[in-house]
Each structure stands twice: as structure tokens, then as C-alpha cells.
Amino acid sequence: MLDLVVQGGQLVDGTGAPARAADVGVRDGRIVAVGAPGTLPAGDAALTVDAAGKVVCPGFIDVHTHYDAQLWWDPSASPSSQHGVTTVLGGNCGFTLAPLRPRDGRPGPDEADYLRRMMARVEGMPLEALESGVAWGWESFAEYLDGLDGRIAVNAGFLLGHCALRRYVMGPAAIGSAADDGAVAAMAAGLHAALDAGALGLSTTLSGTHSDGDGQPVASRWASRDELLALARAVGEHEGTFLEGIVPGCLDMFSDDEIELLGELSAAAGRPLNWNVLTIGSAAPLRVPRQLEASRRARELGGRVIALTMPTLVPMNMSLGTFCALHLIPGWGEVMRLPTPARVDALRDPTVQARLLAAAHDPAAGVLLRLTSFGRYVIGDTYSPANEGLSGRVVADIAAERGQDPFATLVEITAADDLRTVLWPMPTDDNPESWALRARTWEHEDVLLGGSDAGAHLDRMAGAPYPTRFLGDCLRGRRLVGLERAVAMMTGEPAAAFGLRGRGMVATGYAADLVVFDPATVDSEPARLVRDLPAGAARLTAGPVGIEAVFVNGTRIVTDGRATGATPGTLLRSGRDTGTVPTR
Q1: Tally of CB atoms within 10 A around 317
Q2: Could you tell me the pLDDT band of residue 370, with boundaries at 50, 70 and 90?
Q3: DSSP H or E run through 243
Q4: Which of 20, 128, 393, 554 is deepest in the core (most CB within 10 A)?
């Protein structure tokens, strides 16, 4: 007796092989039969799903998420699971919620408060949601993992974040201090304990954009090269692990030292290292070859460095009143950090505007240059009577009517709203040349799709729907790759790159992580702002189109784009659920 038969669909199995008509049989969470249509009778199954006219494929694997907090209040990891994602990897960019140093009765804010404020700053998670939606009852990373085990809808695995580890060992001294030999040894011991408990590896950041809730560089930015290498070697002593690293050059182009560092870390561990995110555009033709130099050098050293890149342009909004990417442009931070009234006054000053515009168009802005064509911004929500009727309009058009420079117009509009105006930048790299470059880059052996940041930057971007957006584009849009290749890029390839055992393909013996979708309609709805987080906090989300069913370990977690409430997901643990991917 089978638990499930998915019958009559076109099977795209995750290997890149041509689609074929096939039935899929499932028992005890595993695929036990893949046969020609009609070979698995419906009467032999507890549940039969008619997939006639639909595509059946493996569940999608999102390798760069920040669902570390959201899974505590939303086991479905929405909206990812609604778009066919069945496996998420978290703990990226050096940030996790564990280990959590106990307060020990000392005065001052507790460590949970420090981590919450850090995550609110660096990952855009609403502080009120973190305070009210997460249990915060653990100390060790093992306790954190155990708290999620058995209560999630998707499969989820987590790296250990270097920032939490360093803070756990060194306390407040983790900020501003080098680690002595004893502290490095203690960090390595804590890392070993987390890896023994099932952490997938270590993530770290040296990025100048990452500051804690006090505005100070996060803990891992104070680490020496020796500390980083010692921790990388510790990762290499455990089965099924990998590294993730962020350096300043991820935002534009790597320095020679960064290329060497990434390769050295991977080689020291004997494990792959991935970084986020490779931004591809025809306006910067030298960026891709420079960034992939890190992969070439890593192979020389005996390592492997994988660049993550997105196959879609992620909908993203911002406001001048809250922290956003514009703060990261060199020379902008000092203005954007001012209290709101002072910030409004500064932005209205023509001299300041000229200085900001010069910095916005300087090559030092790197990938942020794609956000500095201010005339291409679309006005979203407004709040002042002076801005009535401007929602949905392009700034350049309004500026032409007013006889102003577009940036001056943008400032005038947002100042009337006390900087609360929602702004939607129109991408500057949505052109045929950029898309052709992306398609070529996707073929590189060390480039992998990923980088959604799902679960982070919740009120500013919506990267989670990229699987359905990409499929829709491949089937009915630009058609840069075929359906079979697109599915493999989001299933079999990431499973192989990260050593996920028994996932990423529809084959006998594999976990029954399955998606059934309509190829004629599969896509994503437009992003919209909703207030469905704990404490009524807001986030951007987008519903799926054409996703009829999603199964995790043989249990249906999504029906017609809606979560069922089932929680069959596996808490992925290194060594048990992952195997080592060799670098040599």
C-alpha cells in the first residue's frame, strides 16, 4: 500500500534530463516507485493526486535564507513554501540566534536583547516580532536546533553564525577586541559542539555594511585571519559541512587579499565556501570575471568558492526615513543617520544634495550604482496631502512637470511625508545585454542560483518568490534556459553543491519533496505589504500562481498556493542529512 501516488504528470526530475510522462509513488516519506503512466494504480494509494497537464518536479532548495527567527512563529516559512521551496538553509552572513550567552545575574541588557537588536539592524527583522515571536529559551546551538526539530513544515538546516559564537565566548569584548589564543580555542570548542549537534558549518562576515544595534561593527569583523582559519579548520573535521563568507568586495569587486582569503578558508577546511551575491549587469562587464577569480584561485589552493546569484530581479522598496541600501553609499551614512528633522533639513540643502549626488555616481558605490538613477524611482505609499495622486508615478515625470532635478523632486516628495514615502527603484540592469550576460554566467561551474535573503529585510524586499518568477520567465518570458535546466538549477544542483543527502531529485529512495505546478500559469503575484508578523509588524510578501501542491517528506504542506498547517519537515543535521562535498 502506497501513501501517495502523483499520477499523470510530466516529470522533470531535477537532473536536467528531458521531461517525461511518469507516475510517482511514495511510502513513509520516500519515493519508492517512478513508473510509466498507469503503472501505479490509484487504488493502491491512500492519496492520489491527478497531475494531468501539470509538471511534477523536486521541491526547490533555497540555499541562502534567514528564516532563523521566522520559523518559530511561522513553521511554513512563508512565502517560500508556497512558491515550491521545500528546503531552506539559514544561519547565513555570520548571523544566528544561538549560542546565547546567559546573563549570569550581571547588570545591563541581556544577550538576547543584543542579538535581537543586531538582527533588526543587519537583517531588517522587526524588533517587535523578534521580541514577541521567538521563544529565546536556549543557550547552546544544540538547544536552538532541538527547539525547532519536529515543528517545521519545510526541511531546514543552519550554519553557526560567527557573530553569535564570538559574542558567546568573549561577551561585550567581542566588539572592538582581537581574540587571544584562549578565546580562539574556546570558539573552536563551541563550534565543534555545534557541529556535533548538527550545524551545517560556519558563516562569517567582514563586510563594512554589517553593524550591530549599537552601530558598531559586528563581532566577526574584529576577527583576525588566524582566527578565521582556525575556525575553518574546525569545520573541516566534521562530515557534511561547508562555509559561507561575506567580505566587503561581495558588493562590487574583490580585492586581491579577499580572493586569497576566501580560497585559504575553503582550502583550510577542505570544504566549499559560498558567498552572496554575484550581481550581474552589462554596465559593469569586468565584475563577473573579477569575482570568479576567487573561484579560480580557490581551486589552485585546493578549495572551492561558489558564487550565489539570483535569476530574477528582486522587488525591493525603501524609504529615506529608515535604514536602507542608500545608507551604504560612501558619504551618505553621515546624513542618513541624522534624526529625522535634521535629516530633512540636510536633504533639502542644495549643497548637501550636490554632495550626495556626486557620491551616488562615484564608482566607489559599486553595485549600489544600480539604485542611484533617482528619476527611475516609482512613488509608492504617500502620507501627506501635498503628495496626493503621486502613488504609482515615476519621479522623472514629476520632476519634468516641476522643472526640477529628479533627486530634488524625490527629496521634496519624501520631506512632505517626514521621509516615510515608500519608494520603488526601477532596476537599471533590466536590459537584453544584462540578461544575456546572466545566462552565460549561470553556466559557470562555480556559480549557483541563490541569494533570496528570504526571512530578512522583511519590509523592504521580497526575494522568496524567485522559483516561480524564474519558471514563468523560462516558460513564457525571456526563455533563457529550458524548463528542465531551470528546475535542475534550483533542485539537483544545489543539493549536490551542499551535500544534501537524498534530496533534489525525483528518484527511487529519495525524500518525497515534490512540487506540482501548472506550466501555463506558474508565476508570482506582485509584492505587497501585509501586517501579519508578531506584534502586527509588516513585511513584503507575494502569493504564488500555478502552484497546485507541495509535498515535504510525502506530506502535503501546500494546496492551491495555501499552507495546510502540516509540519513534516526535517531539521537537517550535518553528517546525518548531509555528506561531505570534496574540494580536491
Answers
A1: 20
A2: confident
A3: strand 242-246
A4: 554
